TrEMBL record:
One of its GO terms (cellular component) is cytosol. CDD domains: TrmD-like. It comes from Streptomonospora alba. Its EC number is 2.1.1.228. Keywords: Cytoplasm, Methyltransferase, S-adenosyl-L-methionine, Transferase, tRNA processing. GO terms for biological process: tRNA N1-guanine methylation. This is tRNA (guanine-N(1)-)-methyltransferase. Residues 1-232 form the tRNA methyltransferase TRMD/TRM10-type domain. S-adenosyl-L-methionine binds at residues 112, 136-141.
Amino acid sequence: MRIDIITIFPDYFAPLELSLIGKARAAGILDIRLHDLRSWTHDRHSTVDDTPYGGGPGMVMKPQPWGEALDSVTAGADAPPRLVLPTPSGTPFTQEHAKRLSREPWLVLACGRYEGVDARVPADAERRMPVEEVSIGDYVLAGGESATLVIVETVSRLLPGVLGNAESAVQDSFASGAMENLLEGPVYTKPAQWRGQEVPPVLLSGDHGAVDRWRRHEALRKTARNRPELLRELAARRMDELERSDRELLLELLEQMPGE
Ligand code: SAM
């Protein structure tokens, strides 16, 4: 997969040299290209922002450098990339969303700063490529760089060959089979005893069926504690697909929830 990132802070992306993503780049699975938006400015101060029309606080990113940057990055392409614009006013970024993006051959991420990018930039880009505005959460960051890191990391680890064990992506929170969109339960490693606490005996039993059941039950319990709305969704949509013991536990947990 090719990913182009346009930003006024290319140095912000040093972490993309590390760990899984660094290795995936070295292995040729990921082709990440960083671009400094200021190289498409034409004034002495490399200006990328200006005051907002209509007044108000802060500055807005000028359309001209963005337009030229996108033209240049996508020039000569056989098929256009998908442009992703991180913004708090975008659609929520979810694991499902990441899966969809991981099937794209080419993404361009445009990092906003100040009060955001002039609205004509995505409107203009949309004439040539699919564009989506994506929010990584209901809070406001200072810039799109950290949101871009989140999106790139989430998408990259889903690419074939990036994770050492592809099975671990299947077992993650929000990603496990009939119980998908649940949180993953607790995990343990050696030693079996630590500071007076023991690993749950079932995990040492060698009984894979019992281990799987325990994991599903713990996932249900954790979801009930931290994200009850996801459990209600599971009950409403996929109750019939659950094994009997999972269904019984789900009903018990739903009964214990406040307001049920
Ligand atoms: N005035 C904008 C608003 O209220 O929607 C906020 C601009 S924010 C200070 C600057 C930049 O940070 C945005 O253009 C966007 O690139 C990024 N950003 C901030 N919060 C974000 C979030 N929750 N998800 C994705 N990007 C975000």
